[in-house]
């Protein structure tokens, strides 16, 4: 969202308003409530209770956080003045939440954190887990908007614990949605984040919170689209639209959902409908004076106009986005703005400008976000392991406590039976000594194991980064020469380096550092090659004998290069003159213990049999030599397409 400027990403404003209503005792109906500020002012003038007046100040201050920030701060200060003598800790927490929020909007991040920390302190004094979770979520959201997903997830984990302790349905739903978004931004797939979204839906649907339900479905739609699953994305988009059609009053949350829907429709090439939703969202946000939050919808509109060929509008929105992103120091949207301007300049034939903007885009994209995101995934997984270890330690402490109690009981009995007491004491000493030795050994083993995992992940990470550097150098070299054969050779080498790089990326991204998943690797490799050759209409079907079929690293590299050559050959030549086609990759185990991999297409077939191709074909030479290296065999059949069949001994493969 923003570089530490705002915490209003997607659903985070929902709980903030909900808190006001819940504390004031207002009726919480189906969705994001409209607050009649005139009615609140009349109630303030009519009440004789300082406590009630402080509560009313809180809701009025929150409603004025954008339109009149000075007045909002004055009302929060009045809350502090009224509630401090009576030690109404919840009201004090609410006041500091308002003051912190205003500081975020005005880019005072240090001041914001100070206010939020005070708010958490008073929430704890008031033993109010609901408010504690709410403010922790706001802090986590702020770090998420800065791109620091590691810190964001740490705060969301604390917020989740407080939400569960509060037993508040709306807070549990809110925290689950925030967790899903943070893990998604950190690179986790929809299969990992969907359970969090479903947990949130289970909490909001029974309360008919249509606006928030629409937001959750739009979040899932975006993730499905990023996973290249447009059918699932369309289903989630339709569900989101269905819920939003039930919303009567259209505020910030509605505008956020409308932005997500507009982005989905853009990717589905429904440009006219997409523009309607995005412009509606822009006007709502502009009327609410949300300032920096317009960056999301500006970015979405810019992309829409590029995709639909409206380059004049794309340039206008892109320059506005660049200006505002620089003003609010938003790294993410600076990157997006440069990307839009680069693509537009290229479409209009302005090569110098396109190259200049593209270099700026690559600078932001490569040096800031990719490495930070990869590091965050590893740190998040490490934190989850630490959390599980902490629970195990608590159980161990509890077990040790019971042992100590038993020892005391035995000592009491020993006072009566001196001989039995001596035996029990000696035995207890031996047990403690053994436990101490075992505990020391356990800690040493765990430390060594953790250090080994970290080193292995770092090695694979560095190898992957080095291979990416090699890939980039090959790309730059190709761009500087004019001989097409040389360019083709360099690009082929670049794809082979990329195939190896993907293997190391898979190795450090998951728990098992020694193997990679066959189906996951094939799908990632295919997506890269299909985009490179612009073959979006060629479908991949990948099946394996077992869901968790994995290869060790020694076999993964040659297998990856073989698959790279075969898929590349199919995409380049198999479908000439055809608009559609299918590449089917399967992996199965034969009765004789041999692993069989088949790569088949329904294309035009090889013009010369595979066995007759001479050694001048580098791709086929690579296929033959690497198959021989794996001590396997390769054959090729041509029948309504081409089918390569690899039979490889399984004695060094892991399944």
From TrEMBL:
Pfam families: HATPase_c, HisKA_2, TPR_10. One of its GO terms (molecular function) is ATP binding. PANTHER family: ETHYLENE RESPONSE SENSOR PROTEIN, TWO-COMPONENT SYSTEM SENSOR PROTEIN. It comes from the Bacteria. Keywords: ATP-binding, Coiled coil, Kinase, Membrane, Nucleotide-binding, Phosphoprotein, Transferase, Transmembrane, Transmembrane helix. The chain crosses the membrane at residues 408-427. PROSITE patterns: HIS_KIN (PS50109). Residues 370-397 form a coiled coil. It catalyses: ATP + protein L-histidine = ADP + protein N-phospho-L-histidine. SMART domains: HATPase_c, TPR. Residues 458-652 form the Histidine kinase domain. It is an enzyme of class 2 (transferase). The lineage of its organism: Bacteria, Pseudomonadati, Bacteroidota, Chitinophagia, Chitinophagales. InterPro entries: HATPase_C_sf (IPR036890), HATPase_dom (IPR003594), His_kinase_dom (IPR005467), Sig_transdc_His_kin_sub2_dim/P (IPR011495), TPR-like_helical_dom_sf (IPR011990), TPR_rpt (IPR019734). It comes from Sediminibacterium goheungense. Its EC number is 2.7.13.3. This is histidine kinase.
């Amino acid at each position: 969202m923003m570089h530490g400027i705002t915490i209003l990403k997607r659903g985070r404003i929902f709980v903030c308003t909900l808190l006001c209503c819940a504390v004031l005792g207002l009726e919480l109906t189906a969705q994001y409530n409209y607050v009649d500020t005139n009615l609140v002012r009349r109630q303030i003038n009519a009440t004789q209770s300082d406590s009630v007046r402080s509560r009313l100040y809180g809701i009025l201050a929150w409603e004025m956080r954008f339109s009149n920030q000075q007045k909002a701060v004055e009302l929060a200060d009045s809350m502090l003045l009224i509630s401090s003598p009576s030690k109404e800790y919840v009201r004090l927490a609410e006041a500091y939440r308002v003051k912190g929020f205003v500081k975020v909007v005005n880019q005072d991040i240090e001041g914001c954190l100070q206010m939020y920390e005070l708010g958490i302190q008073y929430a704890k004094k008031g033993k109010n887990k609901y408010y504690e979770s709410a403010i922790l979520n706001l802090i986590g959201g702020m770090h998420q908007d800065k791109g620091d997903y590691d810190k964001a997830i740490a705060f969301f984990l604390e917020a989740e614990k407080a939400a569960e302790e509060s037993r508040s349905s709306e807070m549990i739903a809110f925290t689950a949605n925030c967790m899903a978004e943070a893990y998604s931004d950190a690179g986790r797939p929809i299969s990992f984040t969907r359970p969090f979204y479903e947990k949130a839906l289970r909490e909001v649907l029974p309360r008919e919170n249509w606006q928030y339900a629409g937001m959750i479905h739009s979040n899932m739609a975006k993730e499905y689209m990023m996973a290249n699953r447009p059918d699932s994305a369309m289903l989630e988009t339709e569900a989101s639209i269905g819920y939003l059609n039930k919303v009567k009053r259209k505020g910030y949350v509605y505008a956020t959902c409308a932005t997500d829907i507009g982005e989905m429709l853009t990717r589905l090439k429904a440009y006219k409908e997409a523009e309607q939703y995005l412009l509606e969202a822009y006007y709502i946000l502009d009327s609410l004076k949300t300032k920096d939050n317009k960056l999301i919808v500006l970015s979405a509109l810019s992309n829409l106009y590029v995709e639909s060929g409206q380059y004049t509008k794309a340039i206008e929105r892109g320059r506005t986005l660049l200006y505002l992103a620089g003003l609010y120091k938003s790294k993410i949207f600076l990157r997006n703005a440069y990307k839009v301007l680069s693509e537009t300049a290229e479409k209009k034939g302005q090569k110098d400008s396109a190259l200049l903007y593209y270099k700026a885009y690559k600078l932001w994209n490569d040096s800031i976000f990719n490495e930070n995101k990869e590091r965050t995934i590893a740190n998040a997984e490490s934190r989850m392991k630490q959390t599980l270890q902490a629970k195990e330690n608590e159980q161990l402490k509890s077990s040790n406590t019971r042992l100590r109690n038993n020892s005391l009981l035995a000592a009491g009995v020993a006072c009566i039976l001196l001989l039995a007491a001596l035996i029990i004491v000696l035995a207890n000493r031996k047990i403690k000594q053994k436990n101490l030795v075992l505990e020391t050994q356990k800690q040493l083993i765990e430390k060594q194991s953790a250090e080994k995992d970290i080193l292995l992940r770092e090695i694979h990470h560095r190898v992957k980064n080095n291979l990416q550097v090699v890939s980039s150098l090959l790309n730059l070299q190709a761009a500087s020469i004019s001989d097409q054969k040389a360019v083709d050779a360099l690009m082929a080498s670049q794809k082979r380096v990329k195939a190896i790089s993907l293997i190391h990326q898979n190795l450090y991204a998951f728990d098992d550092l020694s193997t990679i998943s066959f189906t996951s690797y094939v799908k990632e490799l295919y997506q890269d090659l299909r985009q490179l050759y612009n073959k979006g209409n060629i479908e991949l079907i990948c099946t394996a004998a077992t869901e968790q079929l994995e290869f060790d690293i020694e076999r993964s590299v040659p297998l990856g290069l073989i698959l790279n050559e075969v898929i590349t050959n199919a995409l380049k030549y198999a479908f000439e003159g055809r608009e559609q086609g299918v590449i089917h990759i399967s992996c199965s185990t034969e009765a004789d213990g041999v692993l069989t991999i088949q790569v088949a297409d329904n294309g035009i077939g090889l013009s010369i049999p595979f066995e007759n191709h001479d050694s001048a074909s580098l791709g086929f030479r690579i296929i033959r030599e690497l198959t021989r290296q794996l001590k396997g065999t390769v054959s090729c059949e041509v029948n309504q397409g081409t089918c390569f069949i690899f039979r490889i001994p399984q004695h060094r493969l892991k399944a």
